[in-house]
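step: validate -> pass
step: tokenize input -> pass
step: predict -> running
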Amino acid sequence: MIDRKNKVKNLYTKFERNVCENWNSFRDQRVLLAVSGGLDSVVLFHLSLKLAKKYSVRFGVIHINHNLRPAAGQEAEFVARLCGKYQIAYYLETLDPGSIIKGISIEAWGRTERYTAFQKIADQQGYNFIATAHHLNDHVETVLMHIGDGCGIDGLKGIRTQIGAIVRPLLPFSGAEIRDFARENKIDWMEDPSNHELRFRRNRYRHEIVAPWLEAENGLLKAVNFLSSRAVEMDELIAFSAEKIADQVIRSSAGESITLVADSLKSLPVLLQVGLIRKIADTSDQSWRRHRWNNLIDFIKNATTGRFLELTDGWVILRNREDFILTLDNTDQYQVKVKPGTDTHCGNYILKWREVQAVKQFTDTPWSEYIDASFLKGKTLILRNWLPGDHFRPLGMGGTKKISDLLIDARVDRFQKAKQLILEADNEIIWVCGRRLSDLVKITSATKSFVELTIERYVGE
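step: predict -> pass
step: emit ->
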């Protein structure tokens, strides 16, 4: 019993040390606590009260009413009274279960809505951090669920100590330590009966896997946490190594398109191949399931020219002859009317129109062309993406040529093809933007009016 009491007595000391080591900027900051009214979040509340006095931390509390259980209103009232007793700012957000989209689980819906609400209140009220009450048991459950999903190394990292403004001060502590602290300090909390409903996946892991395992092996939490820490270190090593060798593998980079030398990439160890691509695609904080790892490794090893693979968040990798091309494939079909004499925005590009008196010297960039303005008089001008079947009369040629053949001859990859713009006048293509002008608008000795057309990438305000 003495040992148990000492552990309880030392919990705040360990909590304070953990906060100071990981979030030394807490002093004089504003922190929003997510308090459900359950054991873990109420203990976080009481530990934070002590921290507030010593470090001049200003706390507020947010409670989310999911409207899923009859007792939800009572829990909101419990947290409101708790905040009132200690004069802590209290924010209540009520969710609408009717907004759940078919195919989305209640758990996933609740998690997304909670964090959205947390960030909304933090932004509105000026809080610097958002603290949740996740602890070591939650972390172990998450790691085991990721293993069940067939995760890669990144999945073994489990719950992160901090992601942006979200912090988890209780993460090093077990559920048993937290419960002992509450009992010893006579702290009241509300039990959520849904925590025992086995229809929820986390509850099944908690009660049917972790609990029996802890009875058989009380070192489980430390063992999984040790494994998780090594996974974090391994992930950091892969990211560090990927950054060091990136220049040896990247052939070129233009905007959201990165070209990798295929032979150089394939010569790397498999973990570095995947690590480099995930770093470029900025998905290193996302947990990849087994099929994503296997699909990418197989693609790098066996893909032939023209094959592509969708990664995550719109990123796609294409095998293109001697290269792999990574791009953010966010192409939409655009079609905008061009008003002569004005600049026209089209997707991520802007068409600039400038009338000139004469052409003293032609430009040496394909993104800027001089044309005979008389051809455009009275015609409707459209700037759009090219479509299969489009053809035009290339400058200097007597006949017509398909746009698709022009792009193939220029060895344009799939992604750039999708983004290719053309300018047409009354359905006649006069410019394959950045590539070839039409013979219809060429400048001759008889030309009397001139227009300079320029295509530039539009960054925005």
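step: describe -> The radius of gyration is 30 Å.
step: cleanup -> pass
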